[in-house]
Recover the amino acids of this structure.
């Protein structure tokens, strides 16, 4: 994760927390290479203590390879540790909404089936998120001109594994 992405991840963490999405674990995995290891302290300074920054050892098996991922990928897991989304470039750029939307879906929907760790008090938070998403759709939806009323919906682009 580059330094800009790291600081944007911190901004996203704060935004989601302010919207009521709490108890989410964030982990940044730094590259094994020497140049990345030298920049580790800069990466760590780009985020708060609420985001763990993990430095791989050069001798260990590469975490990204083990998870079938690449640099700048986002792997989003549910509360039960099941992979819900694996977003690669360009979908992983935090200037887009894909990562944020994927986190919200993993948080609010039982995409991979029921999970015994679901928090009992998330209904209100998730109801607000769903309502806001519907309002956003309504804003961008074309108004019928009286002749033909076609329903258009936005499709989220997601990589699901």
């Amino acid at each position: 994760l580059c330094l800009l992405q790291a600081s944007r991840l911190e901004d996203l963490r704060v935004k989601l927390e302010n919207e009521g999405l709490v108890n989410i674990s964030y982990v940044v995995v730094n590259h094994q290479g020497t140049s990345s290891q030298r920049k580790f302290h800069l990466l760590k300074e780009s985020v708060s203590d609420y985001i763990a920054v993990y430095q791989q050892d050069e001798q260990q098996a590469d975490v990204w390879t083990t998870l079938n991922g690449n640099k700048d990928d986002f792997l989003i897991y549910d509360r039960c540790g099941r992979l819900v989304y694996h977003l690669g470039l360009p979908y992983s750029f935090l200037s887009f909404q894909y990562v944020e939307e994927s986190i919200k879906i993993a948080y609010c929907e039982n995409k991979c089936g029921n999970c015994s760790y679901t928090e009992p008090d998330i209904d209100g938070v998730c109801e607000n998120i769903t309502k806001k998403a519907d309002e956003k759709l309504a804003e961008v939806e074309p108004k019928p001109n009286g002749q033909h009323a076609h329903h258009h919906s936005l499709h989220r682009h997601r990589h699901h594994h």
Observations:
- The chain has one domain: 1-139.
- Residues 146-161 have pLDDT under 50 and may be disordered.
- The two ends are 21 Å apart (CA to CA).
- The CA atoms of residues 60 and 135 lie 47 Å apart.
